[in-house]
Design a protein that fits this description.
This protein has 439 residues and is an alpha/beta fold. The protein has twelve helices and 18 strands. The strands form four sheets. The protein has a six-stranded parallel β-sheet with strand order 6-9-10-11-12-13. A five-stranded parallel β-sheet has the order 2-1-3-4-5, sandwiched between helices. It has a five-stranded mixed barrel with strand order 14-15-16-18-17. Helix 6 packs parallel to helix 7 and helix 7 packs parallel to helix 8. Bound molecules: iron/sulfur cluster. The site of iron/sulfur cluster has 9 residues, from helix 5.
């Protein structure tokens, strides 16, 4: 079948997995644009002739989604709808050898650190001067800012260090310069991300420098909200809490995955922290930053987990009352140290435990949302959906936390900051009345 050829290449980037992968796709598209190559993200119009699938290789479900997406694109190519299919990202980094044999329809596979090679295959030159520049795939009022790559931790269940390598911090100047460019382009809110945020600086400066980085970012005029994701609990740099308390534009928000609370599980997971140390840390964090919103992530079904361990997690949630919780089911990942253990919890039982834990959190989330009724919050407007504006408070990050339904007959636009009086609370959302025009 004659392949449909376009006069000018148009590249569609499909991004799977986490926000760190999304930043990589944005950097790739920034480079392509600078080479005068047409580039789009998740192109629904399908008027492109080349696809780059930026994959995730973290856990089973993510790997399955990545492989299905690759197969879909290869099938489109076989039907003459595409000319080239390229694959990059974590799945490719981890399984390139096997995948090359299993899916020959892909034109080329790239690792997580091979941007110049991908560009070369797309007839583009890598432009070092563009460091920090990217084509945002998020709405223009917020962006993710990756402050480091890789991870030096050895969590037993985690394959990320296999795909992203050792921890490499970006210099403070480079992170600040990237943030300034984002703010100049209209970004008002930045989510700071990394594999392990709190390790920042230990490799480059031989000391933790996240607090210094936060001060430097908070000095940027026009940057309204700075949000911290992926903090690690062990050896937590308490000094960042002082910066969070002192600087108005650092959200009173902390995402700190804990993965579990039962000591036998924390030990088996190699989390380098104990139950009591976690409880003390959370108490200290709340004392240092009153009213802080705490988000965490937990794993259900790790090898050897007992029903008592699951009850322990539920008691812990009732005791600590996190604002936001996400639960993953354990995925038995080869080449991780946990892979040597027997994956003894059946898949349905893992799902049941995850559901059980989330049901405990659902009640807590509703109660905490009900406490907000009658109060006024600064809200950033994200979008209009079925005639209603949706936004978030400083206590809600994008895509993973609560949304605020804003009732108003006034015209608002994404990125506006408004004051909203909460009138109704739901398990994971809030509703309220606009009380002032955009500030
Ligand atoms: S800190 Fe996070 S990225 Fe690093 S090994 Fe542990 S779970 Fe994986």
């Amino acid at each position: 079948m004659k392949t449909r050829t376009l006069k000018k290449d148009k590249v569609n980037i499909i991004t799977l997995g986490c926000s760190k992968n999304m930043v990589d796709s944005e950097v790739l598209s920034g480079q392509l644009k600078a080479n005068d190559i047409d580039v789009v993200h998740e192109n629904a119009k399908r008027d492109h002739n080349i696809v780059v699938v930026n994959t995730c290789g973290f856990i089973d479900k993510a790997k399955e989604e990545s492989i299905n997406t690759i197969l879909e694109q290869v099938e489109l190519k076989q039907r003459g709808k595409l000319e080239k299919v390229f694959v990059t990202g974590c799945l490719s980094e981890r399984y390139r050898g096997d995948l090359e044999k299993e899916i020959p329809g892909v034109d080329a596979w790239f690792g997580t650190m091979e941007l110049p090679l991908i560009l070369k295959r797309l007839d583009a030159d890598y432009k070092a001067e563009l460091i920090g520049e990217r084509l945002l795939s998020t709405p223009s009022h917020y962006a993710y800012l990756k402050i480091s790559e890789g991870c030096n931790r050895t969590c037993a269940f985690c394959a990320i260090p296999l795909m992203r390598g050792q921890h490499v911090s970006k210099p403070i100047e480079a992170v600040v310069a990237e943030a300034e460019k984002l703010v100049k382009s209209g970004v008002k809110e930045i989510m700071l991300i990394a594999q392990e945020l709190t390790y920042y600086g230990l490799d480059l400066y031989k000391q933790r420098r996240l607090a210094d980085l936060l001060h430097a970012l908070a000095d940027i005029k026009g940057l309204e909200w700075i949000r911290l994701h992926y903090a690690y609990p062990a050896k937590f740099p308490m000094e960042i809490l002082d910066v969070m308390r002192e600087r108005d534009n650092i959200c009173k928000y902390l995402d700190m995955p804990l993965q579990h609370i039962a000591d036998p599980m924390l030990k088996a997971m190699k989390r380098q922290i104990t139950r009591q140390e976690i409880l003390d840390l959370i108490a200290d964090i709340r004392e240092k930053v009153p009213g802080i919103c705490l988000r965490t992530t937990l794993i259900a079904g790790f090898p050897g987990e007992t029903l008592e361990d699951v009850e322990d997690v539920k008691r812990f949630l009732e005791e600590v009352r996190f604002d936001r919780v996400g639960v993953f089911t354990y995925s038995h990942e080869e080449n991780t140290s946990a892979h040597a253990m027997e994956d003894d919890i059946p898949a349905e039982e893992k799902e049941r435990r995850a559901q059980d834990i989330m049901e405990t959190q659902q009640e807590i989330s509703l109660e905490k949302n009900q406490e907000k009724v009658g109060k006024v919050f600064k809200v950033i407007v994200d979008k209009k959906e079925s005639g209603r504006y949706l936004g978030r408070t400083e206590f809600d990050s994008v895509e993973v936390d609560n949304e605020v339904i804003i009732n108003t007959d006034r015209k608002l636009k994404p990125g506006d900051f408004v004051q909203v009086k909460i009138t109704r609370a739901f398990d994971y959302d809030l509703e309220g009345e606009l009380i002032t025009q955009p500030v």
